[in-house]
Amino acid sequence: MIRNVAGSVLALVGAAAAVWSPFRAWYDGRHGRDYAIGDLFTGITGDKADVFGSILLPFLFAALLALVGVVLRSRLLVALAGVVVLGFTILWMVQVGQAEGSLTVGGDGSGLGDGVAIALCGGVLLLIGALVMAGRHRRRRVDRHPRHPRPPLDGPPQDAAPDGPRDHARDSEPYAPTRTSDVPDRDPDRENPPPKNTP
Question: Is pLDDT above 60 for 79?
Answer without folding.
Answer: yes
